[in-house]
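fwd from M.: "can u put these together and see what the complex looks like"

so here's what she sent:
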Amino acid sequence: MADLPSISVEDVERHSKPESCWLVVNTQVWDLTEFAPNHPGGPEVIYRYAGHDATTEYTAIHVPSLLLDTLTSTKLVGKLETGIDIPEQWYITSTNNSKDSRPKPPLETLINSHDFERAASRDFSPKAWAYYSSAATDLITLDANKSFLDRIWFRPRVLRNVRNVDLRTRILGSTDLVLPFFVSPAAMARLAHPEGERAIAAACSTKSVAQCVSTNASFPLKEIAKDTKHPIFFQLYVDNSRDKSEALLRACHEVGVKAIFVTVDTPMAGKREADERVRTNQSISTPMSGVTAKNDGKGGGLARTMGNFIDMSLNWDDLKWLRSVTHLPIILKGIQSAADAQRAMQHDVQGIMISNHGARNLDTSPPSILVLLELHKCCPKIFDTLEVYLDSGIRRGTDILKALCLGATAVGIGRPFLYSLNYGREGVEHLIEILSDELVTAMRMLGVTELSQLHPGLVNTLEIDDAVPGTVGHPYAKWRRVLQAKV
Amino acid sequence: MADLPSISVEDVERHSKPESCWLVVNTQVWDLTEFAPNHPGGPEVIYRYAGHDATTEYTAIHVPSLLLDTLTSTKLVGKLETGIDIPEQWYITSTNNSKDSRPKPPLETLINSHDFERAASRDFSPKAWAYYSSAATDLITLDANKSFLDRIWFRPRVLRNVRNVDLRTRILGSTDLVLPFFVSPAAMARLAHPEGERAIAAACSTKSVAQCVSTNASFPLKEIAKDTKHPIFFQLYVDNSRDKSEALLRACHEVGVKAIFVTVDTPMAGKREADERVRTNQSISTPMSGVTAKNDGKGGGLARTMGNFIDMSLNWDDLKWLRSVTHLPIILKGIQSAADAQRAMQHDVQGIMISNHGARNLDTSPPSILVLLELHKCCPKIFDTLEVYLDSGIRRGTDILKALCLGATAVGIGRPFLYSLNYGREGVEHLIEILSDELVTAMRMLGVTELSQLHPGLVNTLEIDDAVPGTVGHPYAKWRRVLQAKV
Amino acid sequence: MADLPSISVEDVERHSKPESCWLVVNTQVWDLTEFAPNHPGGPEVIYRYAGHDATTEYTAIHVPSLLLDTLTSTKLVGKLETGIDIPEQWYITSTNNSKDSRPKPPLETLINSHDFERAASRDFSPKAWAYYSSAATDLITLDANKSFLDRIWFRPRVLRNVRNVDLRTRILGSTDLVLPFFVSPAAMARLAHPEGERAIAAACSTKSVAQCVSTNASFPLKEIAKDTKHPIFFQLYVDNSRDKSEALLRACHEVGVKAIFVTVDTPMAGKREADERVRTNQSISTPMSGVTAKNDGKGGGLARTMGNFIDMSLNWDDLKWLRSVTHLPIILKGIQSAADAQRAMQHDVQGIMISNHGARNLDTSPPSILVLLELHKCCPKIFDTLEVYLDSGIRRGTDILKALCLGATAVGIGRPFLYSLNYGREGVEHLIEILSDELVTAMRMLGVTELSQLHPGLVNTLEIDDAVPGTVGHPYAKWRRVLQAKV
Amino acid sequence: MADLPSISVEDVERHSKPESCWLVVNTQVWDLTEFAPNHPGGPEVIYRYAGHDATTEYTAIHVPSLLLDTLTSTKLVGKLETGIDIPEQWYITSTNNSKDSRPKPPLETLINSHDFERAASRDFSPKAWAYYSSAATDLITLDANKSFLDRIWFRPRVLRNVRNVDLRTRILGSTDLVLPFFVSPAAMARLAHPEGERAIAAACSTKSVAQCVSTNASFPLKEIAKDTKHPIFFQLYVDNSRDKSEALLRACHEVGVKAIFVTVDTPMAGKREADERVRTNQSISTPMSGVTAKNDGKGGGLARTMGNFIDMSLNWDDLKWLRSVTHLPIILKGIQSAADAQRAMQHDVQGIMISNHGARNLDTSPPSILVLLELHKCCPKIFDTLEVYLDSGIRRGTDILKALCLGATAVGIGRPFLYSLNYGREGVEHLIEILSDELVTAMRMLGVTELSQLHPGLVNTLEIDDAVPGTVGHPYAKWRRVLQAKV
């Protein structure tokens, strides 16, 4: 880079048209004339910065290495002349700026996951906030994920020595967890912080907490895993092109991923209306899935435009292919019925993850804890056969403890960790400490000191038991046959 | 019209008294001196415009052809002189103007049926909004129609190939529907848009969606059906004068109506208090039923004044007459109990429609989905015998899907389509697209691709099952007898 | 009165001290020097008007005849000189004036009982509003009285000839009611309107609606019943002095009262906190019970200070005495359990009235409709044996209809009629018309035309059935015995 | 004290540095140079007042005798010169001042316990309000403690002689209670009023109401009990150092304590977030437990910093030790399950107290009344064996009555009495009168006059019965074993 020609502000400004389009990023001057029409996020956003500095906008969306990875170095035409006054008009306000100019509340004043949510709603860009916080249509499942947990009472036992609490557990045969919760996969963490998934990884590494990385992460897996020592899982969206998925799995094997969480509940993105309502000309690239998310003209939201590569035809038969291309434990992420849990037991998978995708896919899909109870009622054998994970709605140490009492091996936590990225790595670490402390406190109050002491007898689920289906099959089988005959 | 005499503004203004009363409508000058006392909406509103231009008010209420249909052409005294300045005082503000002068939100920003409702509440005249949105007394059933649907959880199945979704269904033996929902009948769509039911018809024709036309439509059936190719049903209020009903049925036969939905739940209009509270001197004519709705002095609301022609003595015996005068499939619209569903099976009808009239008739009448469950519990045989339709409270693709899982052949949607008329034909089309997209999304998330795959096992109704009556008869039969003896 | 001496303003003003205290009421000048210390409402309020005109305050509280009835005519010292200027300072603003100086909404704009409540909350004096609207402590039963009714669904029957609806019923062997509801007894209607219970009587007479007059009415029974032809019941608080109660019963016999509703649920007034919070120096006399209500120093509220004459020791044995002094049908008003309903069957009474005193006595006492269901579950025989009335929470025609379907002979309506007094006799008549119209509409929608057609099969009570006790006795009888032994 | 040297303001001001630090408290001048670094609340607060008068701050936190008890009298260097002008700058505003400068509402306008809560929320310092009102995390149990009581209906009996009501009961064999409720133990009543627990004791003594004194009381037990004649219980937190606990028990024996309520539900303080959010440099000493509460740097709240002396290893085996060091009746305070109630029956204790620590420890721990019902369902024998007390959520006379009907011997009331301290001793007495009056009223309305007449048949608990666990053991015992094997 030292021998790049020095280019003046005036020179750059001369290339402000589609026919000759230069942009400055981090003092490097790039010629994007050829590339712009092929920009996954559309050429408009590039033309908007033509002849100007685009560092702020670029950094908010792309990993630093992307320009060089995407273009040949011949497009790097020079380095911006230093020691000069940058004209004021170069500073173009991003469309994506924060909603609130007040400084963030000090991190130590945040004492629970709700605080992180509140802060994020203030500090994030409208688009980031909408993308993360939104859920399917009328938000009924979003609310139920939490309210069903809140209607479970503990049955605390007292007068037990609870001085020493041990939260360790071994999963999947050989992976040791220091804490029985992990970071659930979520797309595009760079929307929240420039370091995105890397900041999460750094915090998890420090705290020895497991992290499940999304196919739609903002960084390549290798960058996320670099210099970390915590257990990493990989969330897989199976690509229409199996080759791409296999390449991702190879990357998983290389970085020592511990398990594959294959998403089975998302043939397409759900209708997340808050996400659709926030218009933006911002586009976001995801290096692993290779797609770029942006709002389409029809208000499709980031999620919808990003999901096109996902194979809508994915079905049980495809699990054979998956097993053939990875030796890692496979967890089916997104099971929502005892019927499918039973079916999972007939396949070569090592676990299921009860999830309604954070209530983002199908509104009035059942709250996660209800499905966990359905398993106890309809196919309790699964707890002897597979490991059962759960996410969607976990916000408190008490929530974690309830799921564990009811047989979950460990739980995933999604949005709260994205919100904690508001404070970067320190935020993630602080949230881990909070949840860990809440869990220890709750266990002591419940009279238990090890995860092996947990069992359903320590919770009273009667207030939601009436909503638990008691049969896997179809209560109106006879009626169904007739209907099918008629139509 | 070319040879009509040209009349000056001054000439018109000379006839501004009851004894000589001219009005201008669409540049035509009419002598309404004789007609005014017989105006179904009362003479006052005519006298108010005497000697002035009444185009705006007239157009908001009447079909253009009505003046000529009602009066002989001898009352058309001339054409307003052109090329002159219309005096400013001619512009009389309608009492019926929009509540909000801001421009409507752009149609593409409306992404669900609730958005249409919100926009209509702002853009409609107070009277139109009150008439459409109002429901019986304390609005308990209005709320329950939706909340009972919201308390049904899906039981989604995953890992199924859901690439291709097919929403087609055949009903009533030979009518093919492209989508399993249709426009429920509602009176006086011109309150919402000058093109009223015709705009709905045009949109339905484009989208191949079925439409059920009300006896109280603002246009004659023939005008609505003109140049359309979608399935049309006809909603029949049986008239005190059977002759009039038979004439309507003949019109149905002529335009190729596919089925008669005879309303059985409305011996009189319910007490819709919002409707009664909005006073107006506006009157609305309905060409088919031949009545004119206006607020009576006692706050009766539009609905109450319009329903006087409906036969309060209509009963099961009358179905023989109805069958004798039409060969079309008959659907009993407004069934609200298993007892009446059972009784319907003993008559020559082809279907029933569960409905509480959009919660407009009897407050605390049961939410529609509850009655559908009652049929499963008390007379499941009906699903083999008759087609079962349902309306009242359907607002989302998920709502449609739940009703279909529980055995509905198709569902009707009322108010949302009236609200979509805020944007005319384009609004109706946009709403159809939204609902269709929501339904497809929900089906994929549920793991189904054809309507024939739907069955009750895909929904969890436990949270409302406790409210479903288990018996058609009277649990306190013995007590009843004694009471009757005593009184 | 013609020969009363004429007294000047100056003369009156000279007697403005306790030692010589004159007041002007309706131009009559009274010497209250001796009486003031014995004034049931305390002497202060009298001294406040000493030497002044007290007409406004007096009229708001007392019946016109009270002064003459209470004092001998020797205390009437003269007549205020006419044709003179009354000094402005004579007009003392009452502490009890209306909360809102805006004119009342026109009567015809009130279309349901809630409208009357809203208007009364604006127009009544703070004290009157507090006294009428208040209920026991946390208002839980107040809310439940209505919400339990709202959770009952109708099971409407359609296709029945409902042209002619007949609401007549015969009760207590020989009393014919035109409408199956009546005005429930309530104390001190003069707080709402100078004509108080007389205005109610006049309206009831016009509309042939029954009225139950309270022991604490603001007028003597004879004045209320004068010139009326509607059925009158009498609500009896049994006095510590049986003589007084017997005198009241003799008055009942004289004016042709049809039944005695003896209150059994009020050994003392409940804790009605809104009533206690509004301080006032206003006192209110009740001519029949002979007591005067005013706030005591300790915030006891009007109700508490008024109830001291009621016999706290009243018990089942006293019914023999009651029967011995009246031949009229006896209804036990305030039954709240099947146990007491069963006990009532063993006594010589003709009916019971389920009531929680409008939720004014014991908070979390059961909502009335719940007790009615308890009777069906625990002692259905009562419906063959006694007549069962009900009040507390009836606000709509649908509420009336539900109670009648569940076996009530007729229902009482209290607060709404007090609120309707805001408009005097016309208000009461208007409310009767509204309730009657709502009831007719609801019956038609339910598919019934006579009260004899009503039965429990027309309502779905499943949403509240779980709260209905199934046994009269004590589920933990064994436990009870042990406890009693221990204490 | 008379012979203490007189010290001038100027002299005091010279000692305003850590190296020489004098403070004035109640005109006494103390040299705290040596003590400050050892101050349990940290030296900063002392240095803040160095060379100044600290009377206000000291008095708000410490008992008057503490300085002399803690320091030797040699540190008392003199007496502030009298008759001089105190410089204005000496008056340092406490960080702990009241939130609202308006005068308190007059005591007689407070008519229920909610009024006391509202007044306290206005008048208390933010820290005091936060400490008392806060509860665990999302406040679900806090709300449920009351709402579950509110969902219990009475089954009132009428027509009983209820003139004379007797609330007396004998507990623990020989202690007579005039009223069946007592003041539940709560820490640091001086936060609310300088007289703290002594004011409560004075009021209880006047009213003959029992009081349970906390280990963390702001005064030594002896000071609280001095000159009183009411029954006193002692709440014991078992200290890591058993010696300290034994010393406390000896003090109990000396002052004639009637029973030991040993807390079994608090191995550590719960996460009370409101408490943690209010930062303060105020520290509070508790003479009996010897600890000082202050916010730690990490937002631990007063409660967390205060609980460090409590033995986290306390378990059933320790009850033997407890019995060996006291002859007094032992009540296990904090039982929350039938399983532990059963276990209590196997130990030499005289009673249990159902409590969730005022919802302050574990959120979604069961509401107290639910646990009481669980005992009836799972181990009714306990009512014959032990006395059962209950606190957490009692706010009304009706609440007390419900708990008594369901078998509680007596109930404890905590926060309301702390709030009543807003008015000192008079406030406590007023609250006792209110609760007593509410209880008498409710009993009359229920048709009972003595506590021995109470039994579960007088309440209808059906609305919460579905939430009562029916088994002590583990419904999924089999599943549990498998899980343990796997992990």
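replying to her w this: Residues 6-90 of chain A form a domain with the Flavocytochrome B2; Chain A, domain 1 fold (CATH 3.10.120.10).
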